[in-house]
Design brief:
This protein is an alpha+beta fold. The protein contains 17 helices and 18 strands. It folds into four domains: 95 residues, no CATH class; 92 residues, Phosphorylase Kinase, domain 1 (2-Layer Sandwich); 177 residues, Transferase(Phosphotransferase) domain 1 (Transferase(Phosphotransferase), domain 1); 81 residues, Dna Ligase, domain 1 (2-Layer Sandwich).
Length: 550
């Protein structure tokens, strides 16, 4: 049994709280956790030195990372105390009950804030250039959120405070599934600290994933970059330039959806309140373009395109395109504009993707893609993006409404995921998901809306020509391409063309084989006609001579 006043909450109460958080944070089996907790408390009562986290690890209820998160995250949640009795003896009821004294608003534990406005801080998620980000609970909406807090040392600096406020304003303007949402901004009345309330994304950054894997599969990398390109398209339409695109600012949701975060260095085009001084380069040297390194005021949409290209290169190659020991060395290399191709680090990188990366990383902005929409088009055309990334499960992907909508729409996958095909085949088979247009034998333009199965039937029946064009019905402004360029119809088109070609060859062969017979017949008739004509001529001549003789 514990022998000191401080050990009582550690032995019992802390174990109970760890058990509760294991259930609430990670959704593990509550009955199983309760069973393990009971066993731990019984063993401690017998004098054994055992902890609930160790027991949960041994039972494989939690993994090492989850256990460490609980260990780190529990301390700043609340303070547990044991209340002494009036006679000076400690309350033995503390061994079986939770006695909690919540911290007052604005108080801190281990120099960490416990409350930020109406948001209760649970644990720290990370530290950034201007402050820290915390996991918090919002009681009103009954949800977990991420609270970004401007540090006390930076708050008095007007330019930093103004930049922090602009980050919140920019975030409020952007509502897109591939951008981390900004819910609220404010200033805590007790501590005076400024904060931004963000969507909590329970997943790693793309940089953390790189650290785990070294480099990503091409399909996974293109999937992530395509998502971020969509996010940038949304931001650029609202005249917002991010200026700090990098793997560390890309969060990966459990569904596989990639989300762009950290608009702390973003600027609005045409905004007179520009906080960047002349000739000042801001951003991350490995990813920002040469012109931004020379003068951040020069950054525009094409600068974000460059940084996204450097990010894509890093994801597939496992190395940055321009490395160096210092920012100056990196910038000098970017001034030259030469770097090893990504395929030199990863042979799986196809030539088509190398060309896209090369155009994104051109030194001169005028030589790059001029809009992020052009990048999206080329990445789509490459058909390299994995519908569901390999680092998530199908079940997790299908639980996300955005991912579900994207993967249930007709896709142009060159290597369809068999799991996805089985899950969606029945749904797609009954929906008229294609628009087809072609010209009939009279030259009239014909259009129809049909399922893939119906189109194949009509092709086989010959009522739709093989060179007909098709586009997705559910995709506004979808581009028409010949049926042979859609994976759904390629096999049918190839089979029909082979059949047609075979028939033509057979007809030609038959015509060639019958040609000598026709020639022989013609010769026979000519010879016969010549013979008859000769006989008639002889008879006439004989008759003529006989008549003269008489």
């Amino acid at each position: 049994m514990p022998t000191s006043f401080e050990e009582i909450p550690t032995a019992v109460d802390m174990n109970r709280r760890f058990a509760r958080l294991a259930v609430s944070w990670y959704g593990v089996d509550a009955d199983r956790v309760e069973e393990i907790l009971r066993e731990v408390l019984n063993r401690r009562a017998r004098g054994e030195d055992v902890h609930i986290l160790e027991a949960l690890l041994d039972a494989e209820v939690l993994n090492a990372g989850q256990a460490e998160n609980l260990r780190i995250g529990l301390a700043p949640t609340q303070i547990q105390v044991v209340v002494p009795l009036a006679d000076g003896k400690r309350d033995r009821m503390a061994a079986t009950a939770d006695i909690v004294v919540p911290l007052v608003e604005g108080a801190t534990l281990n120099n960490e804030p416990m409350q930020m406005g109406p948001y209760r801080i649970l644990r720290r998620l990370g530290v950034g250039g201007m402050g820290a980000v915390y996991l918090a609970f919002e009681k009103k909406e009954n949800r977990q959120v991420a609270v970004k807090v401007l540090s006390a040392e930076h708050a008095p600096v007007p330019s930093i405070q103004r930049r922090f406020q602009l980050e919140g304003q920019h975030g409020a303007l952007l509502q897109h599934p591939n951008i981390v949402r900004t819910f609220d901004t404010g200033q805590d009345s007790a501590s005076g600290l400024h904060y931004i309330v963000l969507e909590y994304v329970e997943g790693p950054t793309a940089h953390e994933l790189l650290d785990q894997k070294g480099k990503l599969e091409v399909g996974d990398a293109v999937h992530i970059v395509l998502d971020i390109a969509r996010a940038l398209e949304h931001a650029h339409k609202r005249q917002i330039i991010h200026r700090d695109i990098k793997p560390g600012n890309i969060l990966l949701a459990p569904s596989g959806l990639a989300k762009l975060t950290d608009f702390g260095l973003a600027k609005r085009q045409g905004d007179a309140n520009n906080l960047t001084h002349h000739s000042q380069g801001i951003g991350t040297p490995y990813y920002m373009p040469y012109e931004q390194a020379m003068n951040a005021k020069m950054a525009d949409e094409r600068s974000d395109i460059y940084a996204l290209g450097a990010t894509l290169y890093h994801l597939v190659a496992g190395e940055v395109p321009f490395s160096g020991e210092s920012s100056l060395e990196i910038v000098e290399k970017k001034g030259l504009g030469t770097y090893p191709p990504a395929c030199s680090f990863n042979p799986e990188v196809p030539h088509a993707l190398e060309e896209i990366i090369a155009r994104m990383l051109r030194r001169d902005p005028d030589d790059r893609y001029q809009t992020i929409s052009e990048v999206i088009v080329d990445l789509d055309r490459s058909q390299l993006a994995a519908p569901i990334p390999g680092f998530v499960t199908l079940a997790s992907a299908l639980q996300d409404p955005v991912m579900l909508q994207r993967i249930t729409a007709p896709i142009e996958a060159t290597q369809p995921d068999l799991r996805l095909k089985q899950a969606l085949e029945a749904k797609q088979a009954t929906q008229p998901t294609w628009l087809v247009r072609y010209r009939d034998q009279r030259g009239n333009l014909c259009k129809l809306k049909a399922t893939a199965a119906d189109i194949i039937t009509r092709l086989e029946a010959g009522t739709i020509p093989l060179d007909a064009g098709a586009a997705h019905a559910g995709k506004a402004g979808g581009k028409f391409k010949t049926l042979a360029r859609w994976p759904q119809f390629q096999k049918t088109i190839e089979t029909l063309r082979r059949t047609k070609s075979s028939v033509k060859r057979k007809t030609k062969s038959t015509a060639q084989s019958t040609a000598p017979v026709a020639v022989n017949r013609r010769r026979t008739w000519l010879l016969l006609a010549a013979g008859v004509l000769g006989i008639v001529t002889i008879l006439l001549a004989t008759a003529f001579f006989l008549a003269r003789a008489v």
